[in-house]
Amino acid sequence: MVQKAKILLVDDRPENLLALEAILSALDQTLVRASSGEEALKALLTDDFAVILLDVQMPGMDGFETAAHIKRRERTRDIPIIFLTAINHGPHHTFRGYAAGAVDYISKPFDPWVLRAKVSVFVELYMKNCQLREQAALLRLQLEGGGKSAVGDAKEPTGLLAELSARLAAVEEQAEALSKQLDDDSADAAAVATAAHLERKLTGLRRALDALEPGADSGAPSVPSQN
Fold first, then answer.
1. Residue 125 has what pLDDT?
2. Which residues does UniProt call coiled coil (predicted)?
3. Residue 116 CB: number of other CB atoms within 10 A?
């Protein structure tokens, strides 16, 4: 089974969290609540999240300060943050949100369909990155384990390469479809950049696999970095 992505919802008002859950429940992912910036940072210590929906105005640690802490941590700095705010103080206030590391800045009341669509894009990108890490792990197994499968059973190198190639092809096809969807929808620049980064990593992994094929030039191929 494909593991569900986790989405972190941060708001000090329970009714707002309930509304977000109602909007995002159709995505069929795992929704995690946090009622403060401190609680959000604690959740981020142990779990991986596809995207964070972060309220700007909260008592104590506000959204801007919370985002700053998230971006300072190596483990969490690449998680997309969507700021939600009930106030609008003009361009300066919006700029502060982007400067804090947000990929989007949405004023309340927002269109539920738009919010759900934006979140779904980052969930899809997260899932594709998870699949890519799995392919990279299998490739490392081929390079380091002498052709053994993930469960330890012996497998012919050519058979494992064919399996890896087929799995990678499926991810490449899905990533290409997602990129076309982003182009068609004129999506946020951050989402487009993330998709392009994913495609570059896929290209590197494909080259490494091709180098392992019989008849390819000898020499150890490099496994693409996951950063």
1. 87
2. 161-188
3. 14
DSSP state letter for 74: T
Rounded to whole angstroms, how far apart are CA atoms 223 and 168?
Answer: 14
Token output for 223: 């496994």
DSSP 39-70: HHHHHHHH---SEEEEES--SSS-HHHHHHHH
Predicted local distance difference test score (pLDDT) of residue 32: 97
Return the SS3 of 15.
helix
Amino acid identity at 92: H
* Residue 37 vs residues 10, 117, 156: alpha-carbon distances, Å: 7, 25, 51
Segments of the chain with pLDDT less than 50: 147-155, 218-227
Say if residue 112 is preceded by a cis peptide, omega within 30 of 0. no
Angle at which helices 157-184 and 112-144 cross, to 10°:
160
Helix (H) or strand (E) holding 144: helix 112-144
What distance lies between CA 58 and its chain's CA centroid?
A: 25
Distance CA 219, CA 100 (A): 44
Q: What is the pLDDT of residues 125-158, one digit of tens each?
A: 888 888 887 777 777 777 766 544 444 444 455 6
pTM over 0.85, yes/no: no
3-class DSSP assignment, residue 7: strand
Over its C-alpha atoms, the chain yields an Rg (Å, rounded) of 20
Asked if 51 contacts 31 with a C-beta cutoff of 8 angstroms, the reply is: no
First to last CA, the chain: 25
